[in-house]
Amino acid sequence: MSVKQITTDDLRKMKGTEGLILQGCGGSLDEWVDGINDMLTESGILLDSTKFKAENCCVFENEGLTNLMFPFSEDVKLDMGKLAMWRLQTHENFGGKWLSDYVDNRLGGFIREETAEKKKPDCKLIDEDGNIFNLMGIASKTLRQNGMAEQAVEMRDRICASGSYDEALCIIGDYVNITGEDNYDEDMDDGMEFGGI
To answer: What's the CA gap between 42 and 34, in Å, rounded?
Structure first.
């Protein structure tokens, strides 16, 4: 069995899980898992002959890097103090981060399940001024008008942490259905034109 591919959205749904993320892992991922297991065993971090299994590890792409996530589970016994020191000592080589830190600081935080299941409202963004802050403002207003103020804040935080215009647009699309004039419900604008929020 080999490492499974996931997305950054999958990572954001792993609230309550912790793990170690190594950044910039090129080449054979199975060899990476074996090599890290050997290093952690030699350093006295992996205990009682336990190791990370490749099928439990995940690979994802973000910010142009291939990243490996080693989840902490009951079948892997670790000396957490030594692992924390190893992570700091090898940070220059592996860019090691805790899963919770990575998601909070690079991906805008974890998604609550009820947020993921909530229906996205329509938002007319096509033919609007393409400045990302303008589009973010329109999408935020739409979310607030639909009782989704928390999602508006979450969206803003994710956009501000994003690395590119395209990534920011994709984030907006995670929260609203981007529409144009043809499929926009004009009734939504009644009474809203002059400060009707």
So the answer is: 12
